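Re: that chain you flagged

S.,

Sorry for the slow reply, it's been a week of failed gels. I finally had a moment to sit down with the sequence you sent. For the record, here it is as I used it:
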Amino acid sequence: MIVRPASLVVLLSLSATVGFAQTLTKESLNEKLAAATCDCLQQKAAAQGQKNLSKETARSIVIQCSGISVGKELKNVQQVYGANALANKALMNQMGQEMGVVLVQTCPTFMTYSMAMVGEGNATPATATTTGQTTGQWRALTGTGVAILNITVDKTQNAEFVWSHHFPQDDELLGQLEKLNGRSVRVSWQEVEVLQPDTKQYRKLREVTGVELL
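Prediction finished late last night. Pasting the structure tokens below so you have them in one place:
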């Protein structure tokens, strides 16, 4: 059979489309949703300028941007999470949490809006903030927008901490990252909350306030 050039182009296009559909995963979808949400947040932030964000304004913007990103990827959302996914609260909570994890790691603007929502209108005094220390072995420092410190607590448990602010000796640690893998460390942390897109619910994260080499 002779395949004409025009027919070959059609076949290649169909193959590419089918290949994409077969390789679409929750991870790749949530990366797309997070990227679109982050772009929207960055545009909103640029338009907002240096004005202080109220809790309600920040929350409204995050919900709006995440909703726009889901709308643009609706067919893919239905493909991955099911045709009736938007009507399933549990699935939407799951998607929001998975997308939120990506946003925390890749989108500093998202963290700015999240902190604005946590910082204002919080009835809990700052002195009552939950804090603690976790001991384990340094595993990795990951993330492209917000750094995530991973340590191994024991053979079956790992712990993650958001590294978003300066703390004593942080520059010294950053200067020897390649030597820290496997080192015993004690991480001091405080609990913070960030809003998860779409779910309108807050997720608690542990933020690094200090790291001690043991």
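What I noticed first: The chain has seven helices and five strands.

Talk soon,
D.
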